[in-house]
Amino acid sequence: MPTGAVLKINRRPYLVTPESGIRNTQTVRERNCSVARTVAILSDAWTFLVIREAFFGARRFESFRSALRLPRATLTERLKRLTYQGIFRQVSRSPGSSRLEYRLTQAGLELYPSFMAMMQFGDRWLSGRKGPPLRLVHGLCGCECHPLLACSSCLEPVTARRVNYRNGPGAGYSAFQPQRRSRRSSDSSQYSRGRPSSVSRMLEIIGDRWSFLIIREAFLGARRFERLQNELRIASNILTDRLGHLVSTGIFERHKYQDQPDRYEYRLTEIGMDLYGALIVMMAWGDRWLSRGGPPIILTHRDCGKDFNPTVICDRCRKPIAAHDMSYRMNYHPRDFGAPDISDRAAAIGSKAKPALPRVKDGPKTKEKC
Ligand SMILES: [Zn+2]
Ligand SMILES: [Zn+2]
């Protein structure tokens, strides 16, 4: 029986653990963590793609389907699950119509900064010669912008090395929640379905939920195999596999810390350190929408000395980024990917429709102050 597998015995879930064989999942505990809760939703490639298309203005079943070419049953299941999770809500297409469409709820809309943080990472490290697939224009200032991770107290940029952690009211461990493996898309190449996207590229190299959690532990100071294994209750073959993958993609470097026998530890590279923004923005979303009993971790910005919420701001006007304020310039032709044109779609996202932003065309049209 492989470690990490979940068995059902007398209808109760049991986990096959690396150290002690089969254990009741109620006695296996994992760290309370808002990153894990958020990643549990987003690390399913198809779920992630459906949310991304919603940010690009898709609302109807057929719009999602034509952009992503997912099997009908898969798309139906993902939309149903996202509605159950409170990320979408179903509304009538028009008054009196029985036909329904899917709109992002407030919780769904607030995932936008997480997508922006992942996109910035992909733009910085994974764009290649063609450059980022999308350029962003911020409606509040009219400038092309590169969203920044900032401290909510001083609005200055935040990096991993300038943050202290302490336990919050929700800290601790709780019972292991088995993942529903069979119905998830674990093939990370699925992330690149549809249009080119820096967010997809980032998720593709990270791969899966375990990789996110390994990176999280690295930010919390874990470098060695045994500590990672203890914190995550992860099977050693899975941990070996994920560490190998994260080294090959340049997120970690191996450093020898002992001879005879040779032992190595895993340190985040510059690229790995740059995942910090995406991770803490996802954490902030999980704190707000998924944590019972308050946030598990509280962050203090060492530059200003205050506790803060990770906030994604426009690098030009320093105002927080929201989905309905953004428009896009595409660096690809949407028809090449069967994806709809989105450059006039941004304003369609919010549940309260705002007047459409002027359609942005290529060329140096930004205002002088930019
Ligand atoms: Zn600050
Ligand atoms: Zn701006």
Features:
370 residues; globular; 32% helix; 3-stranded antiparallel β-sheet; alpha+beta; 17 strands
Report on the architecture of this protein.
It is a single chain. The chain has 370 residues and is of the alpha+beta class. The chain is 32% helix and 21% strand. The chain contains twelve helices and 17 strands. The chain has helices at 34-42, 45-55, 61-68, 72-84, 106-109, 112-126, 198-206, 209-219, 225-232, 236-248, 270-273, 276-289; strands at 6-9, 12-17, 21-24, 29-31, 88-92, 100-104, 134-138, 143-145, 148-151, 163-167, 173-175, 252-258, 263-268, 297-301, 307-308, 310-313, 326-330. Strands 1-2-3 form a three-stranded antiparallel beta sheet, with no helix packed on it. Strands 8-7-17 form a three-stranded antiparallel beta sheet, with no helix packed on it. Strands 10-14-15 form a three-stranded antiparallel beta sheet, with no helix packed on it. Strand 12 (252-258) and strand 13 (263-268) form a beta hairpin. Helix 1 runs antiparallel to helix 8 and helix 6 packs across helix 7 (198-206). It is globular, with a radius of gyration of 21 Å. Mean pLDDT is 81; it is low at 1-27, 180-184 and 344-364. The structure holds zinc ion (ZN) (2 copies). One zinc ion binds at residues 151, 153-154, 156, 301, 303-304, 306, 308.
Strand order of the largest sheet: 1-2-3
Helix and strand composition category: alpha+beta
Ranges where pLDDT stays below 50 over 5 or more residues in a row are 1-27, 180-184, 344-364
Distance between the termini: 60 Å
Q: What is the count of DSSP helices, taking H or I runs of 4+ residues?
A: 12
Q: Summarize the amount of helix as a percent range.
A: 25-40%
SS strand fraction: 15-25%
* Mean pLDDT reading: 81
* Multimerization state: single chain
- Extended strand count: 17
| Biggest pleated sheet | 3 strands, antiparallel
* Tertiary shape: globular
